[in-house]
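Hey team,

Sharing the TROVE domain-containing protein run so nobody has to redo it. Sequence (576 residues) first:
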Amino acid sequence: MDITGKHQRLKMGTLSSKDIEPEDDDTYQYKPSARKRGPEQSQKVQIHRKQVKNAFGGWIFQVDDMQRAHRFLIMGCEGSTYTASKSMLKRENAKSFDRLIYEGKGKELVTLIEQISLEGRAAKQEPAIFGLAICARSNDRETKKAAYDSLNKVCRIPTHLFMFVKYAEGESNGTGWGRAHRRAISKWYEELAEHKPMVLARHITKYKKREDWSHRDLLRLSHVKPKHDCMKVITRFVIKGLEEAKKLPVEPRNEANLHKILTYLEATEKARKCTDEKLLIQLIDEQRLVREHVPTKFLNSKDVWKALLKRIPVIAMIRNLGKMTSMGLINAGSEYEKAIVERLNDETLLKKARVHPFNVLVALNQYRKGHGDKGHLKWIPNENVMTGLDSAFYLSFKAVEPTGKRYMLAVDVSGSMSVPCMGTESITCRDAASAMMMVTLRTEEHCKVFAFSHDLRPVSISKEDRLDKIIDKLSNTPFGGTDCALPMLYAMENKKKFDVFIVYTDNETWYGKVHPFKAIQDYRTKMEIYDAKLIVVGMSSNGFTIADPDDPNMLDIIGFDSGAIEVMNEFILEQA
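Structure output:
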């Protein structure tokens, strides 16, 4: 699986020629034999991690509360299942937080929240903010202090701050604005005003209101008492408006900074009230205004989008290709078409923006359709832009860092894999599975691909194969039932060493006489790879249960989206 940034490559042993045969032979097929599959998991493994007996009488590594909290911060729940859909975080899914705080581990928990948030390891930011709110509202003084001290690090933009306030309100039995809470909210603004005043000015004008909270609400309720001239001006602007902010007396040494801030704030106000398109474009160019500063009535203006395109981030550009094409901005041979295609072919830019191949493929499929999945937006796809997206897809592989793990990928090749992924409806399960396998093949040294045919059958796919060729090979493979235990049974039968097993299927997560979690446990014991991991991805499933929730090395993915990729990345590198 792919890993984005910040992790050191793990050094693993290489496979011998014995280990890679006979799956390189396309004629070889695996059927489990009646021969004994090695020792049962009836004896405890002598290693240094705590183990407990499961329902089968086997020994597994126990999932402690810190690991459960870690799961919540990564996936939004303490269990072993990630769901690719927008779901509300539930307090009952974070009970481990309460136990850890009660046991005196609240500060350690806050450190974990901060670390995961700053390193961008979670699928979404919401669980970290939710967890921080739980800690901030706890009755443990040290935990509360640690949580509020981490507020500026975890909540880095106003959207996060508004979210924190919402969650903190939900955790409170009273008004929710005690002294510690007011002080922390005030500090969030004060620190930015002191060290990065222009950043704060951009924040308060770009993210004016989220989660039913506004900057005006937060500044009034926190009883902020500005210490710096910049903060005084920004506070007065938010609460009383631009003209009142201009009247404030300032120290001579701060005049230059304040003039810059006031000029910017005045430009955002002019843009908000603007009726002249030329003036708006001038303001965008001079003050580097962004899409959020543009009045709704001008968001269909070709010339306004020309101005925005000059500095739009590459991910936002890819997301808005359909919109810009619908307005006639990206005409064949135009300078804007050329600028977009050049950026799509800029490997350095794609790597810096951490653009993942799966997300580019989703964008390409959506753009090729010529319409959005929601609303009435339609466009005629530009051929050069589609070629550029195709190029960006392959270039973005170079931004993916290898893990050094040994992979066995098993994919469902049935006709039902042509249905859309739940969570990413613009791409089919087959295309998504092919793309993810391609990422692993191109980034990992040790990776084998199998198909669930009438039996488990190796698929001859090379690192050089393009996506369409991989899809053709999978489509032309006879299909059979998806027995999620077969990969481990095959590897155990043939003494093949793998660190990670990944099953890609639509909604068929069937298994035969051996339960997958029994198969993976037996494999660990026989091959002495005690932390071997199993991931089952049901790309169009509405729900299934394969993973043992008490086994830290098993994971179910329901549906598939970009968040699922982050979850899988973190899961593969995490040590049980």
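Residues 354 and 399 are 7 Å apart (CA to CA).

Ping me if you want the raw files.
A.
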